[in-house]
Design brief:
single chain, alpha/beta, Aldehyde Dehydrogenase, Chain A, domain 1, Aldehyde Dehydrogenase, Chain A, domain 2, 7-stranded mixed beta sheet, 6-stranded mixed beta sheet, 15 helices, binds nicotinamide-adenine-dinucleotide
Length: about 475
């Protein structure tokens, strides 16, 4: 098949690639140069996409499940064939190092393919001579996927596969900061899905609310910040839309005194600094037992200082933060740390001499045992800043780990299996890891407790989130 070209970017409406009179563009966060033009969708474009989706839904939802499954698998194969171009575009638009962008493309293919293999047969509740009661799952209709800028491709694929497999039509709205891979993904989809089944609209801040308020969109799957998630929920309430929210996190990692620091520290370093900390399930608070705290801190700081920050096309471990607003937000954490008694043991800001480029770069910053009520502990920086804290008793550390409005992920690190089991069960989070963090699986439901979300994506739970339930009572021997 012909390779996709990545110079022009279009809205995808009813199978057609469209531009708009007014356009916008993203910024390469490493160079601060403008990226190519992208369309600026209007309410009229939304209405046209919704009308096309409604027509497409009627046909798509009637297709045999296996036909939809095969289309998704072929689509995933096409994405894999275009891996190099998608990865380069991801580095340009998002800033992440090229090897991490390649990992994101691989994960996107995996999330499409593995979710496409899921089956969701009807549930048989009663089956006697007199009566059969079954529940089946029917597609909701038109879904809109609203995606953030940190994993623009993988998070789009995570929503696309279950929506289309279950027979819905999907309108994808990428973040205005990272619209490029999402638009190309939908363009690629036109080779595999009938017109209107997969569409994409690029726009500014006004586009999300137009989708969430639209009377003929039936479901919103939103990934982004908790603050925006609340606005989305409020807006969806007016039309009683079905809603899944994947929101922010402030994941704690609890490190017990029996761990092997030689093997554990490098892993934790990876789970803290991946994507420059811009990952919902990055470790954002590290609680280390006081008896090994000095050694842990020393090893963590040494490894952190060896990491190279720079343009994703160079030999860098960390790219920039993705956009100016995020840069300002991370800076506000550094300013707050500067104003308090917190001790910074690695990082801080670059000086003008050692900046790796004009972009939104920070050195990864480690804060030594800040107070529990400091901003760096209570809030999600979503950038390369991490507090390391000391603990002494199990009850105390569990209480402190759970003392957050967020409940996305949490981990416990110990060789003691009983202790691991005991602590992990008390952690209030949607995903809990023992001796790892951040590992995800397209077949395992993923969702947040507390203000980290509502509902779950992926796995059979994820499929059901794009469905209505329909229960049949069949009286076999009518009177
Ligand atoms: P954001 O909330 O600013 O934006 C997310 C998306 O919502 C974007 O596409 C944006 O254009 C759109 N949007 C903005 N205002 C809207 C509105 N009023 N109505 C509808 N849509 C609107 O989030 P972000 O800054 O792009 O992403 C960072 C946040 O996302 C972090 O808090 C991070 O933890 C969270 N996140 C969560 C997960 C998860 O799965 N739980 C995954 C990745 C990121």
């Amino acid at each position: 098949m012909t390779a996709l070209e990545f110079t022009q970017f279009y809205n995808v409406i009813d199978g057609r690639l469209e531009t708009t009179v007014e356009t916008t563009h993203g910024i390469n966060p490493s160079t601060l140069e403008p990226n190519p033009k992208v369309p600026l969708a209007s309410e009229v474009d939304v209405n046209r996409a919704v009308a096309a989706a409604r027509m497409a839904f009627d046909l798509w939802s009637e297709k045999p499940l296996d036909e939809r499954r095969q289309a998704l698998i072929a689509f995933a194969d096409s994405l894999a064939e275009n891996k190099g171009a998608f990865a380069r575009m991801l580095t340009i638009e998002q800033g992440k190092p090229l090897n991490q962008a390649e990992v994101e493309v691989d994960a996107s293919v995996k999330w499409l393919k593995q979710q496409a293999t899921l089956s969701f047969p009807e549930d048989v509740i009663v089956d006697t001579e007199e009566q059969r009661v079954t529940t089946s799952y029917t597609p909701i209709g038109i879904a809109a996927a609203i995606v953030p800028w940190n994993f623009p491709l993988m998070l789009a694929c995570g929503k696309l596969a279950p929506a289309l497999l279950t027979g819905n039509a999907l309108i994808l709205k990428p973040s205005p900061f990272t619209p490029y891979c999402g638009l190309k993904l939908a363009e690629l989809g036109q080779r595999h899905f009938p017109p209107g089944v997969l569409q994409a609209l690029s726009g500014d801040d006004s586009l999300g609310p137009i989708l969430t308020e639209h009377p003929d969109i039936d479901k919103i799957s939103f990934t982004g910040s908790t603050a925006t998630g609340k606005r989305v929920m409020e807006s969806c309430s007016r039309t009683l839309k079905r809603l899944t929210l994947e929101l922010g996190g402030n994941d704690p990692a609890i490190v017990c005194e029996d761990v092997n620091l030689m093997t554990v520290v490098p892993q934790i370093v990876q789970y803290v600094w991946a994507n420059s900390g811009q990952l919902c399930v990055a470790i954002k608070r590290i609680y280390v037992h006081s008896s090994i705290y000095p050694q842990f801190l020393d090893a963590f700081v040494k490894m952190t200082k060896s990491l190279v920050v720079g343009d994703g096309f160079g030999a860098s471990h960390l790219g920039p933060v993705q956009n100016k607003a995020q840069y300002t937000r991370v800076q506000s954490f550094l300013d707050n740390i500067g104003k308090t008694d917190c001790t910074v043991v690695a990082g801080g800001d670059f000086t003008n001499e050692n900046r790796p480029g004009p972009g939104y770069f920070f050195t990864p910053t480690v804060v030594d045992n800040p107070p529990d009520d400091s901003m760096v502990v209570t809030e999600e920086p979503f950038g390369p800043v991490i507090p390391i804290l000391q603990w002494t008793s199990e009850d105390e550390v569990i209480r402190r780990a759970n003392n957050s409005d967020y409940g996305l992920g949490a981990s416990v690190w110990t060789k003691d299996t009983e202790r691991a089991s005991r602590i992990s069960k008390k952690l209030k989070a949607g995903t809990v890891w023992i001796n790892s963090h951040m590992l995800l699986n397209p077949l395992a439901p993923f969702g947040g407790h507390k203000k980290s979300g509502l509902g779950a994506e992926w796995g059979v739970e994820g499929l059901k989130s794009y469905c209505n339930t329909q229960t049949f009572f069949w009286t076999k021997k009518p009177n």
